[in-house]
């Protein structure tokens, strides 16, 4: 069975979030949690909260927590804040403050097994 968790409107660019998401995909949830606790990046804290939320969802449905693994992580772009920065000669340069959405799917089925 699959257990889904989403984290929306994260104030970090999706590119930075995807770098860590690629290293987590396809691993067991227990090893991922221990790996994330040793990483000193702000995005690691976001993944810890979303992963613990997905494990809590699995506990509610009486799943075996030891057999959970990360089936997929989707990092999507959220809305963008458009801002302006004043520069010389009365002009302005634009920049974007990006947001991300994370969708994490845990599974208790063995890899490659279909029901």
Features:
34% helix, alpha+beta, 3 helices, three-stranded antiparallel beta sheet, 115 residues, Ribosomal Protein L22, Chain A, Ribosomal_uL22_sf, single chain, structural constituent of ribosome
Q: Overview of this structure, please?
A:
The structure is a single chain. The chain is an alpha+beta fold and 115 residues long. The protein has one domain (2-107): Ribosomal protein L22/L17 (Ribosomal Protein L22, Chain A, Alpha-Beta Complex). It is 34% helix and 37% strand. It has a 3-stranded antiparallel sheet, covered by helices on one side. The longest helix has 19 residues, at 42-60. The model has no long low-confidence stretch (mean pLDDT 92).
List the helices and strands and how they pair.
Layout: E1 2-10, H1 14-24, H2 29-37, H3 42-60, E2 69-86, E3 92-107
Antiparallel strand pairs: 1-3, 2-3
Helix pairs in contact: 2-3
Question: Within the CATH hierarchy, at the fold level, what is the topology?
Answer: Ribosomal Protein L22, Chain A
The number of strands is 3
Radius of gyration: 18 Å
Summed up, the helix count is 3
Protein name: Large ribosomal subunit protein uL22
Family: Belongs to the universal ribosomal protein uL22 family.
Keywords: Ribonucleoprotein, Ribosomal protein, RNA-binding, rRNA-binding
InterPro entries: Ribosomal_uL22 (IPR001063), Ribosomal_uL22_bac/chlpt-type (IPR005727), Ribosomal_uL22_bac/org-type (IPR047867), Ribosomal_uL22_sf (IPR036394)
């Amino acid at each position: 069975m699959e257990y889904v968790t989403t984290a929306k409107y994260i104030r970090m660019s999706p590119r930075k979030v995807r770098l860590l998401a690629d290293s987590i995909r396809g691993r067991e949830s227990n090893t991922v949690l221990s790996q994330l606790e040793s990483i000193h990046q702000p995005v690691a804290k976001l993944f810890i909260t979303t992963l613990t939320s997905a494990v809590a969802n699995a506990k509610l449905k009486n799943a075996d927590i030891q057999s959970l693994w990360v089936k997929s992580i989707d990092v999507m772009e959220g809305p963008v804040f458009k801002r302006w920065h004043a520069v010389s000669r009365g002009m302005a340069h634009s920049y974007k403050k990006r947001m991300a959405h994370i969708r994490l799917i845990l599974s208790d089925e063995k890899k490659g097994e279909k029901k």
